[in-house]
Amino acid sequence: MKLLKIALVCCGILLFFPLHAQDHQNAVIGFYNLENLFDTINDPNKNDEEFLPDGKNQWNSEKYHIKLKNMAEVVSLIGAEYGGFVVLGVSEIENQSVLEDLIVQEKLAKYKLKVAHHDSPDRRGVDVSFLYNPARFEFISLKAFPLIVPNKPDFISRDQVLMTGVLDKKDTLFIIVNHWPSKSGGEARSAPGRNAAGALSKHICDSIFAYHPNANIIIMGDLNADPIEKSITKELGAIGKIKDLTPQKIYNPMYPMFQDGIGTLAYQDNWNLFDQIMVSYNLVIPNSNNYYKFSNAYVFRKSFMINKSGSFAGYPFRTFAGGSFVGGYSDHLPVYIILQKK
Questions:
Q1: What pLDDT digit, counting tens, does each position of 170-213 carry?
Q2: CATH number where 211 lies
Q3: In sequence order, what DSSP letters do the residues of 253-283 get, joined into one string?
Q4: Under a CB-based contact definition with an 8 Å cutoff, are residues 179 and 158 in contact?
Q5: Full-prediction pTM beyond 0.90?
């Protein structure tokens, strides 16, 4: 009888303290390329013809809702052991509406997430955006920075979007979400776009540092470049080793991960680490005013997100394969960092 009473008390505790209770010792910040999260509605201002019921992909409500459910499944698990993520940057989304549809999915609704969205002028009609937990992150502002490539006046791509907010009423964070130009057309031809993107991210950081010398900056996104490439190491100036880090510089924890063979997407049997999250010096070696500091970076990978068989065994299990709808997740794996209480 005594053991039964103890068991009942424990059950009561679990009822009042659910498994997704927030952990203020840690804060999870992540990024996920959702791979073409389009709705089924024709937008004359978007290049969305592929993702319409009569389009190439025969994109209909059934497929759209499978995609939403699958994305919600993955997103709900990122940082779940810490009560869920605080901020998640996303890319390849058509508009704010698809994110509003995403956050009310069964596995995400309990978190009462909010959307911070900006419409980019991208030719494919896709944007970058943010989801955040308002219980832990106080939104302050959103500002977009257009990407201009020298000697290419007609170049159009996703804007880089800066969100500013306060984490747990303690630390102000400046978070930049990116989706840099792809390698379509070959490395040499496409490199100027990514180099310009790296320079733009550095310009945003320098502008923040001018007013906030000890700023907590987080840079995230699908950079379409590995951590060792010029756009990241030279143009952005990201540092791959903590021992080389100096004030107002950016540390890239994905650099050693890439050297260890870790990736977020696969192409021709090779892994690339295009999806990255970087942090400024003050998050790595924080001043006395900081509540949180950078702890570690990870690629989020579960077995259900990986193909088990066929030509693409071992690759991320995506929505379409070989032109056919296979009902997977994304061609990219998410990444996240943990900020830990000092």
A1: 999 999 999 999 999 899 899 999 999 999 999 999 999 999 99
A2: 3.60.10.10
A3: THHHHHHTT--SEEETTEEE--EEEEEEHHH
A4: yes
A5: yes
